Amino acid sequence: MRIAVLQGSARDGGNTEELTKLVLDGIPFTNFLLREMEIKPIHDQRHEPGGFDRVDDDYDHLILEVLSHDVLIFATPVYWYGASGLLKNFVDRWSQSLRDVRFDFKELMSHKKAYVVVVGGDNPRVKALPLIQQLQYTFDFVGIPFAGYVIGKGSKPGEVLEDVRAIREAEALNAELRRAEPVAAHRS
After folding, report:
1. N or C end of the chain: which has fewer CB within 10 A?
2. Residues 102, 62, 4, 137: is their CA dihedral positive or negative?
3. In terms of C-beta density within 10 A (0-12 exposed, 13-18 middle, 19 or more buried), how is residue 108 classed?
4. How confident is the model over 63-76, as a mean pLDDT?
5. Does the structure show a pLDDT above 70 at 185?
């Protein structure tokens, strides 16, 4: 089993990354830091006869990497009651992958599992639920089974490590992922 983290935090070592590390403690994974990639906003050409024009950025490489993994962890802070722009921009580009003639995007995505790790500072267990629901609808649309989520509370760096409930839920998810047989995965 290969695990990919799509890290949507704009801050190095922030709370979202800290909580994700707890979820994956001792488990091999590939970490994709979206803040270090150039993923341009979508230019919607879904209904154009020729489809989407090629875009010179990191999206194509990243989506091919994502397709080679079995478990996808979408990690994002709550930004204005939604996913970070970095993560949303990546997901918006899935419209392009749905028209890609090289593969059947929905078919490939249906063989993966999705988890979400979210951290917010303003009552996140309530206010992050629309974000969770948005991602759940997105996963449903492309056929990815949504396997679960962890929501943590934290604003200043390191605060999430004081959230006992989030730590407990991260440890439970870690145990669940460990029960699956990890093969051919790597840490980066």
Report:
1. C
2. negative
3. middle
4. 98
5. no
| H/E segment holding residue 111 | none
Phi, psi of 101 (to 5 degrees): -75, -10
Rounded CA-CA distance 94/59 in Å is 10
Task: Estimate to the nearest angstrom the gap between the alpha carbon of 114 and the chain centroid.
Answer: 8
Q: What is the number of other CB atoms lying within 10 angstroms of the CB of residue 142?
A: 18
Is residue 142 within 8 Å of 105, Cβ to Cβ?
A: yes
Counting every residue written for the chain, the total comes to: 188
Residue 55: is it exposed, middle or buried by C-beta count within 10 angstroms (0-12/13-18/19+)? Answer: middle
CB contact at 8 A, 135 and 83: yes
| Inter-axis angle of helices 164-179 and 15-23, nearest 10 | 40
Which pLDDT tens digit goes with each residue over 100-143?
A: 999 999 999 999 999 999 999 999 999 999 999 999 999 999 99
Cβ-based neighbours of 141, under 8 Å, separated by 6 or more? none
Structure tokens at 71: 């478990």
What SS3 state is found at 77?
strand
What is the Cα gyration radius of the chain? 16
